Amino acid sequence: MRIQESDPGEFSTHLLCEVVDLSPSSFYYRSVPVDDQELRATLHEVAAEFPRYGSRRLVAQLRRRGHVVNRKRMVPLMREEGITIKTKRRRGTTDSRHGHPRYPNLVKELLAEDEVVRPDQVWCADITYIPLRRDFVYLAVLMDLHTRSIRGWELAGHMTDELTLSALRRALTTRSAPEIHHSDQGVQYASRDYVELLHSRQTRVSMTAVGRPTENGHVERFMRTLKEEEVSLHEYEDFHDAYARIGEFLVDVYTRKRIHSALGYLTPEEFETQCLASPPVMAEAAASW
Length: 289
Fold this sequence. Notes:
There is one protein chain. By secondary structure, the chain is of the alpha/beta class. The protein folds into two domains: 36-81; 106-276, Ribonuclease H-like superfamily/Ribonuclease H (Nucleotidyltransferase, domain 5, 2-Layer Sandwich), CATH 3.30.420. Helices cover 45% and strands 12% of the residues. It is built from 13 helices and five strands. It has helices spanning 13-19, 24-28, 37-49, 55-64, 71-80, 107-112, 161-174, 187-190, 192-200, 217-229, 239-257, 268-277, 279-288, and strands at residues 122-131, 136-144, 150-156, 180-183, 204-207. Helix 4 crosses helix 5 (71-80) and helix 12 (268-277) crosses helix 13 (279-288). The protein is elongated, with a radius of gyration of 26 Å.
């Protein structure tokens, strides 16, 4: 039913609203176009800085910058603005054909029972390749499973155990050794020197089954993030260029700026700070995520 405002002397608008069970405020309401140009501009800024963010992380990041937005609005907005996500496949870097001792997977059950609840309880390790303009190099990283913080890393033109040892030594200069070190069964992690260094720090060794990269899925996911949000966006001139840019990404962008859904949309640095400030609370929160 359409209601028109009455002329003087006729029925009042208030009375007519009562007849049709319509509040006066609804009658007088006029929609106001929303100017979302600032939101769109900020969306492009965030998408440019974090090109692998999906709609959930984009919503969380925009809220951190003061915008009121949800996924229902974000998905069509991304489509309108031409913001899409592309993926690339990675090259294998694991050689498990060796005669070194193998170790059981100590982390699988911990994850199943939500018992990874504190920093430096489990470090996960992996290697990936990094293309340069005319060559390629290899990156070894150690990631804390609970906080997703990068504990150590090293870049080199070879994939020997010295690469992984350098990353481990770097981590141990700034942190206490983890309770468990988890990796695949690659020769670099199974080598005598590497395992002896871990054992000398009373660290237990854990390994995935051969051909089961999903058993080290958290650090595998990190490597994919690194490739998509840093490596694929640059053509490194040489080793030194790659070392500087990747180092900046690991230390500044990934650790201090990039939010993680698994951490309640906090950065690793923020999450670890909260975790150390109130371990019981964060442990319970981690178990619920």
